[in-house]
Amino acid sequence: MLVAAILAAFIGIFRTPLADTATEIACVLVSGNMKMHPIYAVDLPEKKIAISFDAAWGCTRTQPILQILQKHHIRTTFFLTNIWVDKYPQYAKDIVAAGHETALHSASHPNFTELSNEKIQEELFENEKLITSVTGQKPYLFRPPFGAYNNRVIKTVQEANFVPIQWSIDSLDWKNLSAEQIFQRVTSKLQPGAIVLFHNDGTNTPQALEPIIEFAEKEGYSIIPVSELIYKDNYYIDVNGIQKLRE
């Protein structure tokens, strides 16, 4: 009875970022399989972090963000949806021209846990095709819309040769927090190997971004794209979504 109660409580979609779930039991037995995770963060000895931006709506603040990143000579990762690229193809090109990397965020921004395997693949490959045709980059990282996933989603994404990426620090800029609130939220959670989530059109994202960059640099952190933060081979992802090298 106790095992059944634990399973009932924890089986389902794991949506909450690692940094906010210290008491979460991150590993459960589901139909005989361990719960699978995207990469939330990386186990690193060096003080390196990745900053990322999801683009699913709006472009008003994209240029100011790019200007701040250029000023500090920082390259980051932009997870793009087709609905955004279709509407703002020039901004997608500007992102790549500025030296940043693109990544998948789906074609139409659905909840992947509610899609069939075939529809998941369609969303991924359509997203890859459009980003590649518009920007010239062929992305291989993928962030699920809403952060929603389960074992089936992770497995389908991996079988399509994409790498699922989540985040360990959510700026919550989409909630229209003040620049100071975003700053405090992000800087209080910084640690080596962290992946920070922003949005390209968060109301106060540009105002928060530069102080966060300056704080991180003062603390000795290097800020790099997600693809340069993660391990490419000989790794595993632990029960908390931390990517680690095999010994």
Please give a structural write-up:
The protein has about 250 residues and is α/β, with parallel strands linked by helices. It has one domain (about 1-245): TIM Barrel. Helices cover about 35% and strands about 15% of the residues. It has helices spanning about 1-10, 60-70, 80-85, 90-95, 115-135, 150-160, 180-185, 205-220, 225-230; strands spanning about 30, 35, 40, 50-55, 75-80, 100-105, 140, 165, 170, 195-200, 220-225, 235, 240-245. The strands form 4 sheets. Strands 4, 5, 6, 9, 10 and 11 form a 6-stranded parallel beta sheet that branches. Helix 2 packs parallel to helix 8 (about 205-220). It starts with a helix and ends with a strand.
Main traits of this protein?
single chain; TIM Barrel; 9 helices; 36% helix; globular
List the helices and strands and how they pair.
Blueprint: H1 2-10, E1 29-30, E2 33-34, E3 41-42, E4 48-55, H2 62-71, E5 77-80, H3 82-87, H4 89-97, E6 101-104, H5 117-135, E7 141-142, H6 151-159, E8 163-164, E9 169-170, H7 179-187, E10 195-199, H8 205-218, E11 222-224, H9 226-229, E12 235-237, E13 242-245
Parallel strand pairs: 3-13, 4-5, 4-10, 4-11, 5-6, 7-8, 9-10
Antiparallel strand pairs: 1-2, 12-13
Helix pairs in contact: 2-8, 5-6, 7-8
